[in-house]
Design goal:
Layout (H helix, E strand, L loop, with lengths): L4 E6 L2 E6 L6 H8 L18 E4 L2 E4 L12 E3 L4 H4 L8 H8 L9 H14 L5 H8 L9 H16 L2
Parallel strand pairs: 1-5
Antiparallel strand pairs: 1-2, 3-4, 3-5
Helix pairs in contact: 3-6, 4-5
Length: 162
């Protein structure tokens, strides 16, 4: 069932979609806008795989109705280059995760990277405790936690030197 027109700004681009206002944002991003950075994990907003930034704040797209983000700025993993004004290039946080080989299966990376971007916006030089706290609700089943924490610190260095 299609709904009334909803106006979204995703990764800096305006979209008008006829979708139900209560449809999960994740479904709209993946199915209607073909943005596959956010993953379906638990469907309960607990694992972080579906994370996006809404006005720069990390949010769980699987539990947010699309109507709740109308008029707000949504950034997905695909849009981080634009956010960092490195259009067509990787965001420094993405570079840091590559530098530190902070991935095994990669399923959690969307959430880990977006949580790191949000953290560094609040704390440009986070302590290890702040990094752990910011990532605590993002589940990595592969056990790449040490490399992920190294990537957070590497990203802080890259962004400080940018």
């Amino acid at each position: 069932m299609k709904g009334a027109a909803i106006h979204l700004t995703v990764n800096g681009q305006a979209h008008t979609l006829a979708v139900p206002r209560d449809a999960p944002l994740l479904n709209i991003l993946r199915n209607d806008l073909q943005l596959n950075g956010p993953k379906y994990g638990c469907g309960l907003g607990e694992c972080g795989a579906c994370s996006v930034l809404v006005d720069g704040i990390e949010a769980r797209a699987c539990v947010i109705p699309v109507g709740g983000v109308e008029g707000r700025h949504i950034t997905t993993l695909e849009g981080l280059g634009a956010l960092a004004q490195t259009h067509g290039k990787l965001h420094p946080v993405q570079h840091a995760f590559i530098d530190c080989q902070a991935a095994q299966c990669g399923y959690c990376l969307n959430g880990m990277i977006l949580a790191t971007v949000a953290l560094l916006k609040r704390h440009p030089k986070p302590t290890d405790k702040q990094a752990r706290s910011a990532l605590t609700h993002n589940l990595c089943r592969c056990g790449a936690h040490l490399e992920i924490l190294q990537a957070v610190q590497r990203a802080a260095e890259l962004m400080a030197n940018a």
